[in-house]
Amino acid sequence: MKYHLITLGCQMNQNESERIAAFFEENGMQKETLENADIVVINACSIRKSATDKIHGKMKNIRKMGKKTVLTGCVLKEDLKKMEKMFDYMLESHDVANWPFFNQKKDFFQISPKRKGPSALVSIMTGCDNFCSYCVVPHTKGREKSRNWKEVVEEVKKAVAEGAKEIWLLGQNVNSYSGGTTFDELLRKINEIEGDFWIRFTSSHPKDFSNEVIKAISECDKVTEYLNLPVQSGDNKILKAMNRPYTVEEYKEIINSVKKTVPGIVLSTDIIVGFPGETESNFRNTVKLFMEVEFEMAYISCYSPRPGTVAEKIKDNISLEEKKRREKVLTELLKEITLSKNEKYKGEEVDVLVLKSKKNLLMGKTRGYKSVTFEGPQKLVGNFAKVKITKVSPWGLKGKLLS
């Protein structure tokens, strides 16, 4: 059989797809284009309504082709019911060995991922225990379950041996990792692995972000100076309604500690605008937090109610037009802050992990996760390069290859 795999979602979905693809090919299936495939797998996420819209959009064309189809991933039961007539199979991603085409017994995390490129996505846990009022993850992925640290370390060692230059440790809340050790100790164990590679992680929850983790970031040379710490709102009333168990003041204390302990840290966050009941005053508090923290990257989304969540029962009383306006305000502010921060890179020599190329133009990331483009040979893809920054913009840097 020939398969085609479509991934719609976050890095967790991407990691699952790598294992699904590997298992398919271990069992004689061949990767193909959409047009030539016998079976099409959509590994999707329905955390936001826009994501379910993407699934519907993809399936309109695929159904006309008469392909066998599978829906898997992080999908709500309510969404599954609405889509059951669109797909031939609706299956659990972690149970791929028992899908009708195979019917085997194999632990999902014992499948070696089919990776491409220098970045290795390594899930250290699944599920979530936080039950934020807007989020469906606990309803789709269940409660938190951590992988044993020895298993994680072995997977990282294998990835590094195969050429990975960047390790992403993944979990809905990596700070609450409990696989026989703590998250900060896991960082230290992975940092001890021989090889020239960087360590990154996502996602973190402020309520579990300890001083020990901050210290580990500072002391582990392979852990990069980049942190995504989702705040979701800069207003205490909205945070409480979101069931985010920390205050803005507590969040700022963490940020100040990080800045003090890890000089040059690049800070990123996640924000939801237009949560039910968010007044203009509440929103201005988020704007104020943006300015105080000086985030250099942010994933800003407009609130949309999801079935089964607590927030779904609250009236969605903010228009889409107003949500979009607030999103634009934060995006413009982010643009100003990032441009100002990027100015310091002019004339600097930085290490860049080259991730891809387009003709003679190479694209990569710095340790602080800044995007860099520069001219250079194709052979540098998947390797580190020394680049002198010659030009900056809000969303990236341009440079000249030094070595």
Overview of this protein structure:
The chain is 33% helix and 24% strand. It is built from 11 helices and 18 strands. The mean pLDDT is 93. The protein folds into 4 domains: 2-108, Rossmann fold (3-Layer(aba) Sandwich); 115-224, 2-Layer Sandwich (Transcription Regulator spoIIAA); 228-345, Transcription Regulator spoIIAA (2-Layer Sandwich); 346-401, OB fold (Dihydrolipoamide Acetyltransferase, E2P) (Beta Barrel), CATH 2.40.50.140. It is α/β, with parallel strands linked by helices and 403 residues long. A 5-stranded parallel sheet has the order 2-1-3-4-5, sandwiched between helices. A 5-stranded mixed beta barrel has the order 14-15-16-18-17.
Number of strands: 18
Shape: globular
Please name the CATH topology of the largest domain.
Transcription Regulator spoIIAA
Strand portion, in percent? 15-25%
From N to C, what is the helix and strand string? EHEEHEHEEEHEHEHEHEHHEHEHEEEEE
| Uncertain regions spanning at least 5 consecutive residues | none
CATH class of the largest domain: Alpha Beta
End-to-end Cα distance, whole Å, is 45 Å
What descriptors fit this protein?
403 residues, alpha/beta, Rossmann fold, Transcription Regulator spoIIAA, five-stranded mixed beta barrel, 18 strands
Give the topology, please.
Elements (H helix, E strand, L loop, with lengths): L1 E7 L2 H16 L3 E2 L7 E7 L3 H17 L2 E7 L2 H7 L5 E2 L28 E5 L1 E2 L10 H5 L3 E2 L2 H13 L4 E5 L12 H9 L6 E5 L8 H9 L6 E3 L7 H6 L6 H14 L4 E8 L6 H14 L3 E6 L17 H23 L6 E10 L2 E5 L5 E5 L8 E10 L2 E6 L2
Parallel strand pairs: 1-2, 1-3, 3-4, 4-5, 6-9, 9-10, 11-12, 12-13, 16-18
Antiparallel strand pairs: 7-8, 14-15, 14-17, 15-16, 17-18
